[in-house]
Amino acid sequence: MANIYEYQEMLCKKEELEQEITTLAQNSDLPALRHDFRIEQKRLAALGEKIKELNATEKRKKQEIQAKTEQAANTEKQIYDGSVTNPREIQALQGKYEELKNQIHKGRKEIKELEKIITKEKNELNQIAKNLKQLQSQFHSSQENLKKAHESLKEKVEICAKELETMTADINKEVLSCFLSRRHSAGGRLYAVVKPGGSCSVCHRTLTKHTLDQLDAGKTVCCDNCNRYLCKED
């Protein structure tokens, strides 16, 4: 019975390794890194569009100031070149000139504020680009680690499979068939060994003296608590 117990433990180990392979990608930090990368990509795109709009606004305002500067220069020339002699017209031109100067001054202040905002947004854009580069590096590193872990687990699974194949030759076919058909109803382990101190290796409950005596006598006995077949530990 010891042979079938060893087979059982090796089979359970193989299944645990296969389960670990299944959940390997889920338990890695790849999903979180991928999520963070996508968020940063969206931020980068949105900020890029915002900067584009700000640059367009800045360009438009500079063009407006240029036009008003030229208009102010022409108005000033009309005031002082003697082409206009009517006092009321000169007064109107002076009022227009002052208004243009105020608009130019206001426009230049707005451009300075825009430049500050654009500089700030560009700095943030550069930081996001750095974040993306770092996330990409972390992703590739984690991907490589995941690949190595996957290969290591697959290798262990293959070793277990070979061990199981070797063990099969020493186990009665009927005993093996019975074990394979009934093991899942027992949570994968149909057999248990008696641990030092007289306890079951699966449920860890202390076995009765009668059960231990029966086992020592070479009889087929089950755990008093979990009802698994008992084997003596080598």
Structure, explained:
With 234 residues, this protein is mostly helical. It contains 5 helices and 3 strands, in the order ααααββαβ. It has helices at 2-27, 30-80, 87-168, 173-182, 209-216, and strands spanning 191-195, 199-200, 229-232. Strands 2-1-3 form a 3-stranded mixed β-sheet. A hairpin with a 3-residue loop joins strand 1 and strand 2 (199-200). Helix 2 (30-80) runs antiparallel to helix 3 (87-168). It is rod-shaped.
Q: Based on Cα principal axes, name the global outline.
A: rod-shaped
What's the story with the biggest beta sheet? 3 strands, mixed
Low-confidence sequence ranges: none
Output mean pLDDT: 93
Rg calc: 42 Å
Intertermini distance: 12 Å
Defining traits:
76% helix, 3-stranded mixed beta sheet, rod-shaped, 5 helices, 3 strands, mainly alpha, 234 residues, single chain
Summarize this entry quickly.
This protein has 234 residues and is mainly α.
Give me the secondary-structure topology:
Blueprint: H1 2-27, H2 30-80, H3 87-168, H4 173-182, E1 191-195, E2 199-200, H5 209-216, E3 229-232
Helix pairs in contact: 1-3, 2-3
